[in-house]
């Protein structure tokens, strides 16, 4: 039994909640009938909490010099990660519940029963504020019931208050069909509310060490045969638009009014930073362009996603088109063009799990290979691959660390081979391609090649600094020499967006003089930070 919610317990809650949502993901997806389904609620909640856990995992348990307590710091990381990775109406509302929770207890020395009740009340208020037109019988009702029961317990015993809140949430969830005719007609409870109940049960498990086996309540009326297939759209609005927005609060107020006039299911939530913060915007509309333009007028929108409800008419396990596809992560316009020319679906750099999953599904293929081109993205790609399995899509991740490795892998693709054999061949080709990156040092540091100062030219081979120079062209030529000294028949050069004119021509000429039997291919890569990327095969 835990008598306080400390930082370690917060981390366990996030991990346990994510695991529980994954167990119930399919069940929650099938409940998704109201509000207008904007994807799959279970999947959206899993992706949202995955982002929250990634935010916690990236933290090194270091507190800022001033600000929240350790548990408050962890809760705010969890809420911020959920906000930035939120998917769908349900995910955005959950991120705001977590934010309200964190704001309430970040500065208190210990989170016991009464503090938990206050945190749930704060999360409830934040959720209601975020929704332009609150509707009862949804997750809002469920979180409000949990908060009211926690306050009514009037106790400092944390496990007791958490248990009371979780039971009240489950009871409120069972009543949601009485409040929403759409739920009653479909014979289901609210999907977002069910997801919140799973999270509250996970909190009780963390505090008590005992798992609560609480199945979803069965409404009084059975689901009619005509509504067995999950609803997938709205008669009035055809598209879901969602994006992140960097903007001032006063501009967001105008954005709310503009989007409210365009559609429904509007949720706009922020991270609380002043004067300019990050906002997650979600709305259902018919005019996608007008919704995006409203975002541009308010600030800087990015990670824009548009979903047409008619495209979601298949069940999550529905058929996909036979065939294969490749999804590649690319940073740089030239690199993206190279991958597109190879027939790959290209995703911009540093994608979320949801963005990679969307790209995989958009291919329509039954078997997809993903090339992440970065060590950090590899974990995200693996998570997307696991999620894709429930859609009947087999995804294999080839652990490429550089675009030049991905080019080598794509070059050996053969649709006549078994998919598994083709993946092995691609992995072998990527592994046989040694890669290097040339950049300028941003600060003073001690590397394995010696000390460097700001502005020095660094040549990294397989992620380790091998050379430190003062002239960019000379250092690029030197690192190619060093790599070809270990053997190689072909050199690939990708020029960065800031590469000086003639850089690849100078390196190509150098190779022709020193290594006359080596083939050289040079392309404009357009990648930031690295004037040159090198691949040796």
TrEMBL record:
<dbReference type="GO" id="GO:0004371">
    <property type="term" value="F:glycerone kinase activity"/>
</dbReference>
<dbReference type="InterPro" id="IPR048394">
    <property type="entry name" value="FakA-like_M"/>
</dbReference>
<dbReference type="Pfam" id="PF21645">
    <property type="entry name" value="FakA-like_M"/>
</dbReference>
<dbReference type="GO" id="GO:0006071">
    <property type="term" value="P:glycerol metabolic process"/>
</dbReference>
<feature type="domain" description="DhaL">
    <location>
        <begin position="8"/>
        <end position="205"/>
    </location>
</feature>
<dbReference type="InterPro" id="IPR050270">
    <property type="entry name" value="DegV_domain_contain"/>
</dbReference>
<dbReference type="InterPro" id="IPR036117">
    <property type="entry name" value="DhaL_dom_sf"/>
</dbReference>
<dbReference type="Pfam" id="PF13684">
    <property type="entry name" value="FakA-like_C"/>
</dbReference>
<dbReference type="InterPro" id="IPR033470">
    <property type="entry name" value="FakA-like_C"/>
</dbReference>
<dbReference type="InterPro" id="IPR019986">
    <property type="entry name" value="YloV-like"/>
</dbReference>
<protein>
    <recommendedName>
        <fullName>DhaL domain-containing protein</fullName>
    </recommendedName>
</protein>
<dbReference type="Pfam" id="PF02734">
    <property type="entry name" value="Dak2"/>
</dbReference>
<dbReference type="InterPro" id="IPR004007">
    <property type="entry name" value="DhaL_dom"/>
</dbReference>
